[in-house]
Amino acid sequence: MNLTSREISEKYNRFARWYDWVEGIPDLLGVRKLRGRLLRRASGKVLEVAVGTGKNLRYYPQDCRIIAVDVSREMLNVARKRATKLSMDVSFSLTDAEALAFAHDSFDTVVSSLATCTFPNPVVALQEMARVCRTDGKILLLEHGRSDREWFGRLQDRRADRHAKQLGCHWNREPLEIVREAGLTVVAAWRTFLGIFHLIQAKP
Ligand SMILES: C[S@@+](CC[C@H](N)C(=O)[O-])C[C@H]1O[C@@H](n2cnc3c(N)ncnc32)[C@H](O)[C@@H]1O
Fold it and tell me: Which residue's CA is the closest to the ligand 1 atom numbered 12?
């Protein structure tokens, strides 16, 4: 079952105050390190899509100029406070990943983390990221999906509908397949944690 962007926005508006606590667990287990590994590749003018509460912000190289979007007003409010605490000048906007209000080729780097699992149409969202990214730019993704250990993948399959209903997160999607289906070229890809988490660098 796919939720609409509006339903996802409402869900994350309610979840915003708890998100950092809940995500604290995967962060402690190593996701924090993956964020660091991904974001040090960012450069120039950056668009972060589905920024959530801004958990990636602290990992950007200092010279990045960042615009960040999300479909949830409350998640953006938390991200805004985080940017202020970090003394970072980030421009935030309430925008749907599947209809980005930016011109073609306008960013050096486009970033998204833990979000293709929630987009109603992840292929469309990735095509939008590719459209606004310069042809020689970078699309940096940290994603989670179906484990490549069959026993664990089957477990995810069994609970996928219930999980999607609760959190709007489809945890048995295949991020690499979605990236390729969107027509992006994978430059580098690496997976870890039972093959669940992916670091992907792609280009339009
Ligand atoms: C699991 S959170 C990830 C947040 C953040 N990127 C992180 O790494 O912690 C998913 C985020 O995607 C956002 N989102 C879901 N669908 C979206 C869409 N169509 N457009 C923009 N943001 C969306 C949600 O509001 C939420 O903030």
Answer: 50
